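Renewal narrative, Specific Aim 1. Our central claim is that a sequence can be written position by position from structural information alone. The example that follows is taken directly from our test logs and has not been curated for this report. It begins with the structure tokens describing the chain, in the order in which they were read.
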């Protein structure tokens, strides 16, 4: 079926971003974070591209994602970040998924799994060094290493997470790094364990904290964690956005001056106006919050969205454009001619970040891969 709305994923851009990030973190192993269906870009397709370019480690949030990724044919290490239900522990074993563990109960559960199966099943230990989210405390490290030793658990690595690595100004990341170093300095740590602290912000802006393994997420998909500022300050051949969101004009209507547009008439035309009806709305991840804010590209020019964005439709003002017809292509996110709208700009229209938009748009529309 020909869909009106298309999310097009540029696999060349994904490959370029992977290689670029490897160059930025030359001494570290690169883990590709493919959670939330690859930030909307398809977990499986993205992971295949990264694997083909040498990636040997993949991070997912949930156990079910890990199973799906393994069943898709990914042979490399798969790490599950958000824990697991103890009743589901056999999935870890069957699919060789490595858990990130943040509580002792889970460590004991994995030890039982090892005993039941007579095989070694390593873990990563998660520490909280300032995010106030998941993890053990750095000061517990020595005791934990000892606890794992007694359970005969192999610790493959230690993991923590930066809360503000996208911010170059604060000393937050410095403080987190100091906490993280307490773990690798604790009794029981050994050099076969990988130390992994960096997300995209850490990779790009805090080189000395790279350690043995870094975890790239948003940057793999072509965006900077600090948005447009990051792109401006990087080299031209830096990260390339991989996702394009396009649609087609459904109908064109001419209305008089003084006409209300869409629900609640939050826009009243100030002149005779030509409106293009687009089959895109908030159920496609095109947030209602950007009603009367967003712009789209038609014929290589910017057209403003007028009135409320509906569930499945919205209206663009094409009064100043010539030679536009029903069926013409509309770019909601991406490049047309010399104009470009990216997820950072759209995020500015609805008070969010590229991450949320990519997930919302990618996971609510049919995707194609080029
Ligand atoms: C999502 C995630 C990352 C990647 O973060 P980005 O800012 O997208 O690079 C890294 N580590 C953990 C634990 C994550 O959950």
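The sequence written for that structure reads:
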């Amino acid at each position: 079926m020909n869909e009106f709305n298309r999310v097009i994923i540029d696999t060349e851009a994904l490959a370029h971003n992977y290689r670029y990030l490897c160059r930025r973190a030359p001494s570290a192993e690169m883990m590709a974070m493919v959670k939330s269906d690859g930030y909307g870009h398809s977990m499986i397709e993205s992971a295949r591209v990264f694997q083909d370019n040498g990636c040997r480690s993949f991070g997912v949030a949930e156990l079910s994602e890990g199973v799906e990724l393994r069943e898709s044919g990914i042979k490399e290490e798969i790490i599950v970040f958000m824990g697991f239900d103890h009743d589901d522990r056999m999935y870890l074993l069957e699919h060789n998924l490595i858990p990130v563990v943040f509580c002792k109960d889970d460590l004991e559960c994995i030890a039982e799994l090892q005993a039941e199966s007579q095989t070694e099943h390593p873990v990563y230990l998660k520490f909280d060094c300032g995010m106030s989210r998941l993890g053990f405390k750095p000061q517990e490290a020595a005791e934990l290493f000892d606890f794992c030793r007694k359970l005969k658990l192999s610790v493959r690595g230690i993991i923590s997470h930066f809360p503000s690595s996208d911010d170059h100004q604060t000393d937050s990341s410095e403080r987190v790094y100091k906490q993280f170093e307490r773990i690798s300095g604790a009794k029981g740590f050994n050099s076969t364990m990988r130390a992994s602290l960096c997300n995209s912000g850490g990779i790009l802006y805090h080189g000395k904290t790279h350690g043995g393994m870094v975890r790239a997420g948003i940057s793999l998909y072509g965006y900077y964690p600090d948005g447009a500022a990051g792109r401006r300050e990087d080299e031209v051949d830096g990260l390339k956005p991989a996702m394009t969101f396009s649609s087609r004009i459904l109908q064109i209507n001419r209305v008089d001056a003084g006409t209300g547009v869409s629900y609640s008439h939050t826009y009243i035309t100030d002149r005779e106006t030509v409106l293009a009806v687009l089959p895109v709305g908030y159920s496609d991840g095109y947030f209602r919050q950007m009603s009367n804010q967003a712009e789209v590209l038609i014929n290589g020019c910017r057209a403003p969205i007028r009135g409320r964005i509906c569930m499945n439709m919205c209206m663009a003002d094409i009064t100043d454009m010539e030679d536009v017809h029903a069926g013409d292509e509309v770019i909601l996110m991406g490049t047309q001619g010399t104009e470009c709208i990216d997820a950072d700009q759209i995020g500015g229209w609805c008070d969010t970040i590229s991450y949320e938009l990519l997930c919302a748009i990618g996971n609510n529309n049919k995707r194609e891969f080029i």
